[in-house]
From TrEMBL:
Protein species of origin: Meloidogyne floridensis
Protein name: Sec1 family domain-containing protein 1
Family statement: Belongs to the STXBP/unc-18/SEC1 family.
SUPFAM superfamilies to which the protein is assigned, alphabetical: Sec1/munc18-like (SM) proteins (SSF56815)
A Pfam family matched in the record: Sec1
Length: 315
């Protein structure tokens, strides 16, 4: 039986296979490539693919090439062990069971005969680093995979940098992957890795001093994550939530806009990954924890324990 975790894993393997259907065959030699990802990309990949599986997908080196987003989270990493070399490279043991090369000076070597697969969040800082890679013509070809949709202005920045670097023909694909969630178990996910400053904490969501801009950003991020799950599962859910729920409104609008767009409808049989369109509509329940404070004392934040206690007899 397919699960959310298995579908996200299949999507990642297809991504690593240069967005072609992934087939594991000894008779077919994989296309060897670099995998470059940011902190969020690492959080998504780590629970799903280990180093052996990355090698089988043709990844010769995986690196945290986008340094700017990681500087603020370095305190969460294990203590590094220095490599005896002049490159200033440090190694961290990753949750995938292998090693990650992290160049603290953000200078990566030019490898003009190797294709590069990027799996990153389309933030302004990340796009600027990618633009610098394009101007320097660092790799043989480029496959850009955005964790969630790339805004039009940043897409234009990428195009301009490719023109400036005279490598337009080397940019093979720019793909919105809709994978903005982290699969921890077969049917358990979270939208981001926990940290003390998590934007999805109960405090952050109910902070009276939060600005409208920051709250809109959080709500949009939640809607993007839930929309990614709908795309990955190939379902249009029935949404149940309290009235005037901001996340529900944004998610509902995203789904409606996508269904209206006949050319780019992500819920058609042709566009759902591996033709996994599901005609059965699940129920998506969005709960407001501020109306249910006592439950936090009895069950975990994820509601997983409560669902197991109450709904196990219905499955």
């Amino acid at each position: 039986m397919e699960t959310l975790r298995s579908r996200q894993t299949a999507a990642l393997k297809q991504l690593l296979n240069l967005n072609q259907p992934f087939t594991q065959s000894l008779a077919v030699e994989p296309t060897w490539k670099l995998l470059i990802f940011d902190g969020y990309g690492q959080d998504i990949i780590s629970p799903l693919l280990n180093v052996k599986q990355l090698r089988e997908a043709g990844v010769t080196l995986h690196m945290l090439g986008l340094i700017l987003e990681l500087v603020s989270s370095l305190q969460d990493l294990p203590v590094p062990s220095k490599v005896p070399s002049d490159s200033g490279t440090f190694l961290w043991t990753s949750r995938a069971g292998g090693f990650l090369d992290l160049h603290l000076n953000s200078q990566r070597e030019t490898l003009p005969d190797v294709p590069a697969v990027y799996f990153v969040s389309p933030t302004e800082s990340n796009i600027q680093i990618i633009c610098n890679d394009l101007r320097k013509s660092m790799y043989d070809s480029y496959y850009f995979n955005m964790i969630y949709p790339l805004p039009r202005p940043l897409l234009e920045d990428l195009a301009l940098s490719a023109v400036e670097g005279e490598i337009v023909q080397q940019v093979q694909k720019v793909t919105d992957q809709f994978l903005a969630f982290i699969s921890l178990e077969d049917d358990l996910f979270m939208l981001s890795r926990y940290s003390q400053t998590s934007p999805y904490s109960f405090f952050a969501l109910n902070n009276p001093s939060a600005s409208d801009e920051s709250m809109n950003k959080i709500i949009s991020s939640i809607a993007n994550g839930l929309f990614s799950i709908c795309i990955t599962l190939g379902v249009v859910p029935i949404i149940k939530c309290p009235k005037n729920n901001a996340a529900e409104r944004k998610l509902d609008q995203k789904i409606r806009d996508n269904l209206r767009d006949a050319r780019n409808n992500l819920f058609t049989q042709e566009n759902v990954r591996a033709s996994h369109l599901n005609i059965h509509r699940p129920v998506l329940v969005i709960a407001d924890r501020s109306l249910d404070l006592s439950t936090m004392l009895h069950h975990t934040w994820t509601y997983q324990a409560m669902i197991a206690d109450i709904l196990v007899w219905f499955f």
